[in-house]
Amino acid sequence: MVSFFRRKKDKDAAAGESGDTRKGSLDIEALAAAFPKAPSAAGADGNDDERAAADAGTGAENEARADEAPATEPEATGAGAGAAVLDDPTPAETVAPAPVAATPPLSSNAQDKPAAAPGKPGWRERLRGSGFSRGLGGLFSRNPKLDDDLLDEIETALITADVGVTATTGLVEHLRKRMKAREFADARALLAALRAELVALLEPVAKPLVIDTATRPFVILTVGVNGVGKTTTIGKLARRYKDEGHGLMLAAGDTFRAAAVAQLQAWGERNGVAVVAQGQNADAASVAFDALQAAKARGVDVLIADTAGRLHTQQGLMAELGKIKRVLGKLDPTAPHEVLMVIDGTTGQNALSQLRQFHAAAGVTGLVVTKLDGSAKGGVVFALAREFGIPIRYAGIGERPEDLRVFDAEAFVDALLPDELGNA
Ligand SMILES: Nc1nc2c(ncn2[C@@H]2O[C@H](COP(=O)(O)OP(=O)(O)OP(=O)(O)O)[C@@H](O)[C@H]2O)c(=O)[nH]1
Ligand SMILES: [Mg+2]
User: Fold this and answer.
1) CATH number of the domain at 28-110+208-414, out of 3.50.30.10, 3.40.50.300, 3.40.50.150, 3.10.300.10?
2) CA 40 to centroid of ligand 1, rounded, Å
3) First vs last Cα of the chain: how many Å apart?
4) What pTM does this model have?
5) Along the 424 residues of the chain, how does pLDDT read in single tens digits?
6) CATH 1.20.120.140 spans which residues of the chain?
7) Which entry of 109, 159, 194, 386 is 20 to 30 Å from 325 by CA?
8) What is the rounded CA–CA span in Å between residue 76 and residue 421?
9) Which residues contact 360 (CB under 8 A, 6 or more apart)?
10) Which of 185, 198, 189 is nearest to 140 (CA)?
11) Whose CA is nearest to atom 27 of ligand 1?
């Protein structure tokens, strides 16, 4: 209970703990201005030493905190707890909706690139460089002969693109049977059949997230390992839902790093959306609790909570997700209404064990696969669909607010494997 009522954290002290030498440096604008280059670039290439050190540094410390977690759950039913929040429906450090911020929380890289075009061309242009489209695209653009060698090459290309052995074997053996039955006149017909089978694999999971307007606030909890794009996805969702006319609030539940709070606040400012935060090292569950209470008091339609990235193998940190869920459930037994796991599309087969562990800890109800632009192999989406059948809600195809697409099985397969390939 101690940390829950500590509504305002000493900002200078928090900055000092984080190793930041600037005085008074939890100032949002200063951090937001400093933010775009460092963490974004680190997340994009995954090799930034400073970021790795920061993550490693906070990991052990927070694992210890998370291990203590269940003892400090806020009590919604206690008179004290209720009064503390209801007396002050505006959380201590809520950033009021503001006009578009001067500092967009995008990496310098993102600012150079245009947003992806709407519709299929946007998907295609962004996924063209993926491992999947290079491997299989190269194969078909050589106008190959329809024979067993072609099927073997397809098999290798699918496995290399992270589709996974089981899904690949299923696909290829089915195509082989059909080829032997003389169903295909040429390689072009085989390509069409492969495309159709890939679409059929994804169609059952291409279920968009529907915000239930009867449930207010509709609570979305985002989870995932470090650097996969959770906060960026929340920023993109904030833009999307705001444009759709929903009243929004964001909760800065990643309290491990001061910059993480500032990153979400910058997205909030940019989209004119309120962000509930308690500063670095606050209890993540108490931030979520505060935020839900504030969102209820304000009649907000959608509350999206950020969480710190955590390795799926860190048991203490994984247990903290369960605590966040339980605490939300004290205010609304049906919350969270969506546990959205963000998966980095470049991760490969490791994404399967990530999803298994996060699902066990937090009951994942939807997925966002990010970074499908660039070098992602893309095939892991098929493996995830086949193994779990959990809905894939969105695809991240760039760093700009507009670069989040409702997941569409046909547009995705079309981008990876354009029909015209067979015309070469
Ligand atoms: N190319 C590309 N980059 C993305 C995409 N989504 C996120 N990123 C980048 O990935 C990096 C990490 O994104 P964050 O949103 O900070 O990731 P996170 O999961 O919140 O990270 P932690 O909070 O540290 O766990 C940033 O540089 C983002 O710009 C995407 O769809 N495509
Ligand atoms: Mg984050």
Assistant:
1) 3.40.50.300
2) 6
3) 67
4) 0.78
5) 333 333 333 333 333 333 333 333 333 333 333 333 333 333 333 333 333 333 333 333 343 343 334 345 555 433 333 322 223 333 434 443 333 333 444 554 555 667 777 776 678 788 877 777 778 878 888 878 999 999 999 999 999 888 989 999 999 999 999 999 999 999 999 999 999 999 999 999 999 999 999 999 999 999 999 999 999 999 999 999 999 999 999 999 999 888 999 999 999 999 999 999 997 788 999 999 999 999 999 999 999 999 999 998 888 999 999 999 999 999 999 999 999 999 999 988 899 999 999 999 999 999 999 999 877 788 999 999 999 999 999 999 999 999 999 999 999 998 888 777 766 5
6) 129-205
7) 386
8) 59
9) none
10) 189
11) 40
Q: Which of 107, 108, 232 to mutate to test the pocket of ligand 1 (most atoms within 8 A of CB)?
A: 232
Tokens of 301: 């339609």
Ligand at shortest distance from the CA of 371: 1
Q: How far apart are CA 356 and CA 286, in angstroms?
A: 26
Q: What is the location of CATH 3.40.50.300 in the chain?
A: 28-110+208-414
Give the CATH number of domain 129-205. Answer: 1.20.120.140
Ligand-binding annotation for 334, yes or no, is no
